[in-house]
TrEMBL record:
Protein name, as recorded: Branched-chain-amino-acid aminotransferase
Cofactor(s) needed by this chain: pyridoxal 5'-phosphate
Pathway: Amino-acid biosynthesis; L-isoleucine biosynthesis; L-isoleucine from 2-oxobutanoate: step 4/4; Amino-acid biosynthesis; L-leucine biosynthesis; L-leucine from 3-methyl-2-oxobutanoate: step 4/4; Amino-acid biosynthesis; L-valine biosynthesis; L-valine from pyruvate: step 4/4
An annotated GO BP: L-valine biosynthetic process
Record function comment: Acts on leucine, isoleucine and valine.
InterPro entries hit by this protein: Aminotrans_IV (IPR001544), Aminotrans_IV_CS (IPR018300), Aminotransferase-like (IPR036038), B_amino_transI (IPR005785), BCAT-like_C (IPR043132), BCAT-like_N (IPR043131), Class-IV_PLP-Dep_Aminotrnsfr (IPR050571)
Source organism superkingdom: Bacteria
UniProt keywords, alphabetically: Amino-acid biosynthesis, Aminotransferase, Branched-chain amino acid biosynthesis, Pyridoxal phosphate, Transferase
Family stated for the protein in its record: Belongs to the class-IV pyridoxal-phosphate-dependent aminotransferase family.
One Gene Ontology term of the molecular function aspect: L-leucine-2-oxoglutarate transaminase activity
Reactions catalysed: L-leucine + 2-oxoglutarate = 4-methyl-2-oxopentanoate + L-glutamate; L-valine + 2-oxoglutarate = 3-methyl-2-oxobutanoate + L-glutamate; L-isoleucine + 2-oxoglutarate = (S)-3-methyl-2-oxopentanoate + L-glutamate
Organism: Arthrobacter terricola
TM annotation in the entry: none
Pfam families, per the entry: Aminotran_4
C-alpha cells in the first residue's frame, strides 16, 4: 500500500506513476478510459471558462476494510446549486449522481484515501459565451494523501481581493473563480509562504485559495459569515457542527479583521482537500507558538473520526462504498 502521509508534491508524482492504476473516469454516467476523457477545444467551457465542479474525499478504514465517501449528497446538492446560479443545463438527480460516483470507485476497485471530482462543462462546439448546454458531466476518483503535508502553514494575506457576489459569486464552485485564488497562491509562493488568505473588497477576512478559515480569539471560535465572499464550505459546516455538538462551543459567525488573526490564539483552515490544517503564522506573525492549539487539535481528531462515520454518525455523512 502507498504511504498516504506523503507531501502534496509526492502525491502528484504518485498519480503520475499510478501505482494503483485508475482505469476509468465517468462521462455522463458511462465509464471511459482515463486517458480518453476529452472536451472539445472550441467548447464554451474551454473558450470562456464556463463550468462548475465539486471536490470531495473518501477515506479508507483499515479496521473495517471499508471505504467511506464523505458528504456526497451535500456535494452533489452544491453542484446543482452552482449549475443554477451560472446557468448550465445539467442533471438534477442528486441520488443518481451520487450513485454514479460510488459506482465509479467500485469499477476502479479503489481501496485507499481518495479525492473525487464531479465537473459539469458546456460542450457546445464553436460555443458562444451564453450557451447553457449541451452539458457534459465528468467524474473522477483518484488516490490522494495529505494536501498540505500535515504541517503548520505560513500564510500570507494576499494583495488580491477575494472576488465578490457583485462580480463572480464566490458561493458558486465555478472553475473561473479559481483564477482569483490561483493569483493569490502564486503571489504567496513567490514570497516564500505556503498558502494565501484573501480579504473581501471591504477588507474583512474572507477565505483561502481552496479552504475556509477559523480563528480562536479571546476563547471564542470564529469564522467569517457566508456573506463575506466565501464558498460556503461543507467542511466549514462539518466543523461548525462538531464544535457545537462534540465540544459544546459557541461559535461566532461574524466579520473578522486582518489584525484579529495576528493576535488570535489559534488559526486553522479547512476544506475537503485541505481537511483541518493549522496555521503557524500569518504575514510572518506567529500564531501562539506556531503549534496547533487545543481546539484545532480536537477538531482535527473529531473530523478524522467523522469522515469514517465514528463521530456524528446520526448525520449519515460517511457513506460506505462497498457492500460489507
Ligand atoms: C475557494 C474555496 N473555499 C472553501 C473551500 C472549502 O469547501 P469544502 O469544505 O466544501 O471543500 C474550497 C474547497 O474546495 C474552495 O475551493
Amino acid at each position: 500500500m502507498p504511504n498516504f502521509q506523503e507531501s502534496a508534491t509526492a502525491v502528484a508524482s504518485y498519480q503520475e506513476k499510478r501505482d494503483q492504476p485508475v482505469k476509468y473516469l465517468l462521462r455522463d454516467g458511462e465509464l471511459v478510459d482515463y486517458d480518453d476523457a476529452r472536451l472539445h477545444v472550441l467548447s464554451t467551457s474551454l473558450k470562456y471558462g464556463v463550468g462548475v465542479f465539486e471536490g470531495f474525499r473518501a477515506y479508507w478504514s483499515e479496521d473495517e476494510q471499508q471505504l467511506y465517501a464523505f458528504r456526497v449528497i451535500d456535494h452533489m446538492k452544491r453542484l446543482i446549486d452552482s449549475m443554477r446560479v451560472v446557468e448550465i443545463d445539467g442533471p438534477q438527480d442528486i441520488e443518481e449522481l451520487s450513485e454514479q460516483l460510488l459506482g465509479l470507485i467500485r469499477a476502479n476497485g479503489l481501496r485507499s484515501n481518495l479525492h473525487m471530482r464531479a465537473q459539469v462543462f458546456v460542450d457546445s462546439k464553436d460555443g458562444k459565451p451564453e450557451d447553457t448546454g449541451p452539458s457534459t458531466v465528468f467524474m473522477a476518483a483518484i488516490p490522494m494523501g495529505n494536501y498540505f503535508g500535515g504541517t503548520g502553514l505560513n500564510v500570507q494575506i494576499s494583495s488580491w481581493a477575494r472576488l465578490s457576489d457583485r462580480s463572480m459569486p464566490p458561493r458558486v464552485k465555478s472553475i473561473a473563480n479559481y483564477q482569483n485564488g490561483r493569483l493569490a497562491l502564486l503571489e504567496a509562493k513567490r514570497n516564500g509562504y505556503d498558502a494565501a488568505l484573501l480579504l473581501t473588497e471591504g477588507g474583512h477576512v474572507a477565505e483561502g485559495a481552496g479552504y475556509n478559515v477559523f480563528m480562536v480569539r479571546q476563547g471564542r471560535l470564529c469564522t467569517p459569515p457566508a456573506t463575506d465572499s466565501i464558498l460556503e464550505g461543507i467542511t466549514r459546516d462539518s466543523v461548525l457542527h462538531l464544535a457545537r455538538t462534540e465540544l459544546g462551543l459557541e461559535v461566532d459567525i461574524r466579520p473578522i479583521d486582518r489584525t484579529e488573526l495576528y493576535s488570535a490564539d489559534e488559526v486553522f483552515v479547512c476544506g475537503s482537500a485541505a481537511e483541518v490544517n493549522h496555521v503557524a503564522s500569518v504575514d510572518r506573525t506567529a500564531i501562539a507558538n506556531g503549534q496547533a492549539g487545543e481546539i484545532t487539535r480536537n477538531l482535527q481528531e473529531l473530523y478524522r473520526q467523522a469522515v469514517i462515520g465514528k463521530v456524528a454518525a446520526d448525520r449519515n455523512w460517511a457513506t460506505p462504498v462497498y457492500a460489507s
